[in-house]
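Title: Comparing notes on inverse folding

I've been comparing how different people in this forum approach sequence design from structure. To keep things fair, I'm posting one structure and asking everyone to reply with a full sequence. Here's the target:
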């Protein structure tokens, strides 16, 4: 079957549509030869409250979205730059012993990143892809067969399409990955992330607050209307208990878990939740196939880096295809393995680090508590260490393509993709 598309992207979330936008913007493929396929495309959500799912977008991810034409589409009311981050251990106090604070002023940046409404981000990435001329196909995936010259994709509405490369960006439970026979490794955390928005007695001061307690990390992310978006990771049994509480009792439990850092809280939305797991695909590529985002890797949300890692997958894949040029087949395994080596060298250490932090900070052992407090204090006293961590969170450090590096960055990037 002759390929109709250079790249068929399965998944219309931010990773899939950002990949489509970047492929078109960088001239890797004509937009009409890029397809985005999903059973249901996101809606605009105009007039709705902020989505319960919010994303902390790094500077590198922001540049990628801007390069693809999506970032500039986002309404200013759905993006909020945060200027500080305060992390502290339950055995310490915010701004005091056992805490670590980052400030954008310390690294000469306007902010440390942006909190973005999840619904708005999905919609405007999709609209940017449509505006660029990318083909959008609303149908589910029934079958994916890798052939010599193409991947043949059969859809639930009976249509068939063929592409030189299938990019699977269809989430942690990726149907594409399952149909292609790619397994995963990892483990469930036996915990849920509870998410909601709350009103707080005291202003958040454009600060992201995170407290590590034995049941799991609790984060307050600042929203532009003065509310905070909560991501509270707790053991499954405790999550069940919390979900059963009335609003007043839940707020009291939240106040206790946060040590009242922003005073009394009051629920502004219902509570949603999702199970937490560590998961990594056994391989990110095969002939004519590449996995990106949650289809390739799922990490603990304590650092808020899940989507940022997925967007950097897009940048790396575009970079290796761009370097290979039109003379190379999009599905050439030698080319795709450069992408896999590049991203696994970043993802695996990051996932292991987040996993180790979760284990360390959720342990109530007094000796480990003293170690945590001492470690946070040590970093807090070293300006260069605080600067390094802040730049890393911004995406200004790490192995990223040159087109995502700003003039003031200390980027440890490559001049060309890894061979």
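Reply #1:
Here's my take.
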């Amino acid at each position: 079957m002759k390929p109709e598309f250079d790249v068929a992207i399965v998944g219309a979330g931010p990773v899939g549509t950002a990949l489509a936008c970047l492929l078109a913007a960088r001239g890797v493929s004509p937009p009409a030869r890029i397809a985005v396929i999903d059973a249901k495309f996101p809606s605009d959500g105009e007039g709705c409250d902020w989505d319960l799912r919010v994303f902390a977008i790094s500077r590198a991810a922001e540049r990628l979205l801007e390069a693809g034409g999506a970032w500039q589409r986002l309404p200013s009311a759905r993006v909020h730059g945060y200027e500080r981050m305060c992390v502290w251990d339950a055995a310490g106090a915010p701004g005091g012993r056992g805490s670590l604070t980052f400030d954008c002023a310390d690294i000469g940046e306007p902010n440390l990143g942006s909190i973005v409404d999840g619904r708005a981000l999905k919609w405007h990435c999709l609209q940017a892809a449509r505006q660029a001329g990318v083909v959008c196909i609303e149908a589910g995936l029934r079958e994916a067969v890798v052939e010599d010259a193409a991947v043949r994709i059969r859809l639930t509405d009976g249509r068939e399409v063929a592409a030189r490369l299938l990019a699977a960006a269809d989430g942690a439970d990726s149907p594409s990955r399952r149909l292609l026979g790619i397994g995963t490794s990892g483990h469930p955390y036996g915990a849920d992330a509870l998410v909601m928005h709350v009103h707080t007695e005291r202003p958040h001061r454009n600060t992201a607050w995170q407290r590590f307690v034995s049941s799991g990390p609790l984060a307050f992310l600042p929203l532009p209307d003065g509310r905070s978006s909560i991501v509270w990771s707790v053991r499954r049994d405790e999550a069940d208990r919390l979900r059963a509480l009335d609003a007043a009792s839940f707020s009291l439990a939240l106040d206790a878990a946060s040590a009242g850092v922003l005073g009394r809280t009051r629920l502004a939305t219902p509570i949603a939740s999702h199970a937490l797991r560590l998961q990594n695909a056994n391989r990110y590529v095969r002939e004519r196939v590449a996995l990106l985002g949650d289809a390739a890797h799922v990490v603990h949300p304590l650092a808020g880096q899940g989507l940022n890692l997925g967007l950097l997958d897009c940048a790396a894949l575009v970079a290796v295809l761009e370097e290979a040029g039109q003379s190379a087949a999009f599905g050439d395994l030698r080319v795709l393995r450069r992408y896999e080596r590049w991203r696994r060298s970043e993802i695996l250490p990051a996932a292991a680090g987040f996993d180790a932090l979760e284990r360390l900070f959720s342990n109530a052992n007094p000796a480990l508590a003293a170690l945590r407090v001492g470690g946070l204090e040590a970093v807090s006293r070293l300006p260069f260490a605080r600067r390094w961590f802040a730049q890393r969170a911004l995406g200004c450090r790490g192995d990223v393509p040159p087109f995502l590096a700003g003039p003031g960055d200390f980027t440890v990037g490559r001049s060309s993709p890894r061979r």
